[in-house]
Amino acid sequence: MSKSQPTNESEASADTDELSEEASDEQTANKTKGAQSVVTALEKAEVEITFGVQGGAIMPVYDALADSDIHHVSMAHEQGASHAADAYGIVSGKPGVTITTSGPGATNLVTGIADANLDSDPIVSLTGQVPQDMVGNDAFQETNTMGITSPITKANIFATSPDTVGDDVGTALALAAEGRQGPTLVDLPKNVTTSETDVEPSEPTVPEAYQVPPDEADPHSVEAAAEALAAADRPLILSGGGVIKSEASEQLREFAIEYGIPVVTTMPGLGSFPEDNALALEMGGMHGTGYANMALSHCDVLLGIGTRFDDRLTGGIETFAPEAEVIHVDIDPAEISKNIHADYPLIGDAGAVIEQLHGAMPGEPDAEAWRDRTMEWKATYPMGYETPQDEAVKPQFVVEAMNEAAADDAIVTTGVGQHQMWAAQYWTYTEPRTWVSSNGLGTMGYGAPAAVGAKLAAPDTQVIAFEGDGSFLMTSQAIAPAVRENLDITVAILNNSYVGMIRQWQDAFYDERRYESDWDWGPDFATLAEAYGAQGLRAMGYDEVPDVIEEAFAYDGPSVIDFHVDPVADVYPMVPSGGNNAEFALEADHL
Amino acid sequence: MAGPAPEDREKPTGRRNSQGIRIDPQAEAEAKPRRTVISALVDHKPGVLAKVSGLFARRQFNIESLTVGPTVDETMARMTIVVEEPEPGIEQAKRQLRKQVHTWSVREVEGAIERELALIKVDGHDPSGVAALAEMHGGQAVRADDEVVTVELTGTEEEIDAAIAAFEQFGVHEVARTGTAALASGTRSTA
């Protein structure tokens, strides 16, 4: 028999059977398998839902799950499992957990792990692995999962013993949630999960060497930062995803409103500050509002909280907030001065540091004239679009119509592309954890599986996924588990028969050569949805938009609406990659 | 979309350099690279070196050398990393190292005692000349084969560079160098 045949699994378990026979009778009563320890560790950490796909090397864990109250959601593809877990983590604030097999089960997760890594989302991936004596032999369904995921995880652990595997899972769960959140992974060789143990997993803890970041920043630095902020003529807050992750949105609101400081959000920071407040300048950066980018470009003190100053936000480093002293609040010291030099580095938890700043502010900045300027910019550079009724529906109109019809606290998930930007621009976000998107990695296909995870995290909240036709095609199979779980979600496809953002860039930067961006070969999405067992709807003109939205919202289960929108609508404002935020284009002629 | 075109807008006057530092007109220059020795105490476990070296590679830090070996505490290993980077890069390297789950402590070692081991295979037509030169550089000829003499040397990176240059007069066949190991001087702890 070849060593690389999966039938070796039975040999591995035969070995452990012999070992167990040597154990005394009273010990046998307490004995359990490594796989049971994995499940016990999940239960101890109060994990309620897991996402995954069954497979050979992970079968022992699935077998142990069968006796647990944990609700396992079988996804149609592992990438969908990782996106669903990611969205679950964003919406619930607790780590989302995936359970998948070795080899392709692990590699299919990789996109979702990388996505979580760039957005600092807490997910824990439990991957099956071939038995330890076959590791490195190119066994059936073997990959070097540790090696592949090392650069995109906060930590990954190769489980080596049934006695410690439960603690390995606990460690992964603790690490994913501690400090700056992020993805962790435990690789579970089959012999570890099938072998017996009498060791009960401990409470989840982080490793001893891991430096748990302090909650509060150095008080002297806080004082200096507060003085700079209070003395500013043109103060501005840049609120990032870290504000939401640390549950600091309320503190941020109080702080900004008390001191009258306008607020720009990053894309992951959408919802951290209510966009219907007069101080809100909404999203900044590449497709941010004109007024947000004018404010970023002219402020003299910038308080960046929980943001890593991503290049989509900053544009060219040389022209980013060029006149501003920067106060940077972040829980991860490695983010300080990584991209933008921090004049006042404040390392700590966003909520705790905002409280500290609040206590240290010597007074309110004299910023009335500055606030007036931001209001003038709002009037000068309004967000808007034309809606000639005899032309194709404008995608922005669909987003606004959905927003109007949806509940105030509805959660929006998105794929990646033009539709994502319209969903960011034309939906009014007022609450944290209502924007669930692939911000850093820009993963097309994120929206539909994310809607599954979001709905399971918040069953009583309305969930709407915006997708593009190209984006949805990548993970449309997520509708199958949505039907199986009877999840009341609405997927709104802004279908322009293009991979639209590529088409827009080709038009702008590649002499309008629309090579391979014309996707007129896509399926009939309403029929596809019905094939999955979901409700499929279609809207071709303005007059049909309100009706299909009403029909989708009224349906108890997943609905997919195929909105046929203007194929050549473009996303503006726009700052070209690496460009100057102050020179945002409002139309093609400005590029 | 409504609003003035870029050229018709009010313009900010400031600027940052490529390191994200707001430019003070008095000090326009960007930070120049400097060489430094970073020492890190890490768990002595499989995969830790790969994680650290991967981290450095991914971030395009310019590593001069990276050595690793056990310490008096057998559960720990010491990594000595020599980097040449501008100031923000050095700070970033230390912070990235520090945040790794298996890192206990990280320190930039100032005034370090630095040593590197080199084995140098020199052409053997003048064995006594090679041995004499090795001694002059504080090393020794450790083996003489038919056509080559192998010399062992320890010293700072610069001393080894100088010795190798000197051996060129005989002809250098091969060189193996370990990279720098370093400890803080006196009673100061290294990391």
UniProtKB/TrEMBL annotation, chain A:
Residues of the Thiamine pyrophosphate enzyme central domain: 222-357
Start and end residues of each Thiamine pyrophosphate enzyme N-terminal TPP-binding domain: 33-146
- Which residues lie in Polar residues bias regions? 1-11, 26-35
Q: What are its cofactors?
A: Mg(2+); thiamine diphosphate
Q: Which UniProt keywords apply?
A: Amino-acid biosynthesis, Branched-chain amino acid biosynthesis, Magnesium, Metal-binding, Thiamine pyrophosphate, Transferase
Q: Reaction catalysed by this chain?
A: 2 pyruvate + H(+) = (2S)-2-acetolactate + CO2
Q: Does this UniProt record's set of keywords contain Transferase?
A: yes
> What pathway does the UniProt record associate with this protein?
Amino-acid biosynthesis; L-valine biosynthesis; L-valine from pyruvate: step 1/4; Amino-acid biosynthesis; L-isoleucine biosynthesis; L-isoleucine from 2-oxobutanoate: step 1/4
What are the Thiamine pyrophosphate enzyme TPP-binding domain coordinates in residue numbering? 415-563
Q: Which GO terms describe its biological process?
A: isoleucine biosynthetic process; L-valine biosynthetic process; sulfur compound biosynthetic process
Q: Which GO terms describe its molecular function?
A: acetolactate synthase activity; flavin adenine dinucleotide binding; magnesium ion binding; thiamine pyrophosphate binding
The record's section on PROSITE patterns has: TPP_ENZYMES
Q: Which domain of life is it from?
A: Archaea
| TM ranges | none
The record's comment on cofactor binding reads: Binds 1 Mg(2+) ion per subunit. Binds 1 thiamine pyrophosphate per subunit.
One Pfam family, short name: TPP_enzyme_M
Which family does the entry's similarity section mention? Belongs to the TPP enzyme family.
Q: Per its UniProt record, what PANTHER family does this chain match?
A: ACETOLACTATE SYNTHASE CATALYTIC SUBUNIT, MITOCHONDRIAL, THIAMINE PYROPHOSPHATE ENZYMES
Q: Which NCBIfam families match?
A: acolac_lg
Please state what the protein is called. Answer: Acetolactate synthase
Q: Which organism is it from?
A: Halodesulfurarchaeum formicicum
Q: Which gene specifies this protein's sequence?
A: ilvH2
